[in-house]
Amino acid sequence: MIQVAVNGYGTIGKRVADAVRAQPDMNVLGVAKTRPNFEAQAALDRGYPLYAAVEERADQFDDAGMEIAGPVEALVEAADVVVDATPSGIGAKNKTLYEEYDTPALYQGGEDADVADVSFNARSNYADAVDADHVRVVSCNTTGLSRVIAPLSETYGIEKVRATLVRRGGDPGQTSRGPINDILPNPVTVPSHHGPDVNTIFPDVDVDTLGLKVPATLMHVHSLNVTLETAVDAADVRDLFAGEDRLFLVSDEFDIDGAGKLKEYAHDVGRPRGDLWENCIWEESVSTEGRDLYCFQAIHQESDVVPENVDAIRAVTGAADAEESVETTNDAMGIGL
Ligand code: NAD
């Protein structure tokens, strides 16, 4: 069993812990939190040993009646791999801790690419992360773009990707984020940082991205235009996408007109926390004009990177090759709508 530590138990960390627990070859050794709150209590209720991320605050857990298993250092030392799911910028600060105990570490997409030796997407560059010590699982948006670019690039070749990313203002629990009533070009400069981030996975793909932020918490929605190297039929692209486990082709019969109904569907099919681990591509939107492909996809920002973290754990520990890992992850989590 691969012994996994999760440092930072928020939106991403708690989902990664549950996905790790579902794997036949992994165990959650413990999770580290900075302070006692509802998530700390939920971690204990789920049976995860709770470690104090900040030693001086360990007493606060005692005061709240929450049992602490030890300091984060002990967790990192004992683990085969640590998943850092702390807020953007904290992962880079934690790097020395992981180096001190010689524990391979995964970082999240909020960190700068140079925190790690490799930026990672299982579908696109799993092999690059095998036996690496520091790997960054790219952001929700970059993950969503990479999953589409990989099959298109392999099958047709890509001349240029243009993507407009309509981004949710914040996650449901992020009460301080916005906008509340506005539509923001964000960043207003073009290209947005997402295009260069895609290039950390596909260095040779020509990609421009534009970003907006809107008053929504549900999902991001991407409007994509990919100029391919050969003319294609939309039906062939739909078949190509249908063959990818982490792409969900939303059929027109489902009558799902937006992110709201997608989330409703996720709850209806019993997904934990209403998560959608797959890119949700509206089948009807997949259209072609000569070499130009167009489509809309929705990306569940809170969860699409979760299976990628699980695969990255197997990559850094050398536990499986890409095909075996992705299949195991998908089976254990129930991925593939
Ligand atoms: P979050 O704020 O929901 O969770 C972070 C957790 O880490 C919180 O519980 C916080 O208390 C804890 N924490 C803070 N400082 C810590 C420290 N020093 N040690 C241990 N724990 C600490 O954040 P999140 O949304 O889960 O984001 C985590 C990372 O994942 C970021 O890099 C983010 O960019 C990336 N990411 C987020 C999303 C998303 O939409 N939420 C999507 C993909 C990637």
TrEMBL record:
Predominant cellular place of this UniProt entry's protein: cytoplasm
Q: In which pathway does it act?
A: Carbohydrate degradation; glycolysis; pyruvate from D-glyceraldehyde 3-phosphate: step 1/5
* Source organism of this protein record: Halovivax cerinus
The record's comment on protein family reads: Belongs to the glyceraldehyde-3-phosphate dehydrogenase family.
Look up keyword NADP and say if it applies. Answer: yes
Where in the cell does this protein reside? Cytoplasm
| Record CDD domains | GAPDH_II_C, GAPDH_II_N
Which InterPro entries is this protein grouped with?
DapB_N, GlycerAld/Erythrose_P_DH, GlycerAld_3-P_DH_AS, GlycerAld_3-P_DH_cat, GlycerAld_3-P_DH_NAD(P)-bd, Glyceraldehyde-3-P_DH_2_arc, NAD(P)-bd_dom_sf
GO CC, sorted alphabetically, is: cytoplasm
The UniProt record lists the EC number as 1.2.1.59
Q: Report the protein name in the record.
A: Glyceraldehyde-3-phosphate dehydrogenase
Q: Which Pfam families match?
A: DapB_N, Gp_dh_C
Task: Enumerate the active-site residues.
Answer: C140
